[in-house]
Automatic annotation (TrEMBL):
Residues 60-96 form the DUF1508 domain. PANTHER family: PTHR40606, UPF0339 PROTEIN YEGP (PTHR40606:SF1). InterPro entries: DUF1508, UPF0339_domain, YegP-like_sf. The lineage of its organism: Bacteria, Pseudomonadati, Bacteroidota, Flavobacteriia, Flavobacteriales. This is DUF1508 domain-containing protein. Signal peptide: none annotated. It comes from Muriicola jejuensis. Gene3D superfamilies: 2.30.29.80. Coiled coil: none annotated.
Length: 107
């Protein structure tokens, strides 16, 4: 499921959740709902490309990934993972989740 959020500064973001309810991906803030909606519509074809995932390691040794748009700008970040294998599994889960979303689950 993709959940849309509006913060106190009137910025929008989205969260992609697994069927279990766990968060797979949190977007950056978007200034307008129109920009957010355009990005959400591009998620399905975007996650099929391997080049849009940037794998990173924090200074504390945690692993996470960033999702980039076609222009190469970061649009969302994963939660931290304790292992590289966990991060790779997170990418696979995100791809599968977005690919299997019912149209009613996409705002």
């Amino acid at each position: 499921m993709i959940r849309i959020q509006k913060d106190k500064d009137n910025q929008y973001s989205f969260v992609v959740t697994a069927k279990s309810g766990n968060s797979l991906l949190q977007s950056i803030p978007f200034a307008s709902r129109k920009d957010l909606d355009a990005t959400v519509k591009e998620l399905r074809p975007l996650v099929k490309r391997t080049s849009v995932f940037e794998r990173q390691t924090s200074h504390s040794g945690k692993f996470h990934f960033a999702l980039k748009n076609k222009e190469g700008s970061v649009i969302a970040m994963s939660k931290p993972y304790s292992s590289e294998a966990g991060m790779e599994n997170g990418i696979t889960n995100l791809r599968n989740r977005i690919s299997s979303l019912d149209p009613s689950e996409i705002p």
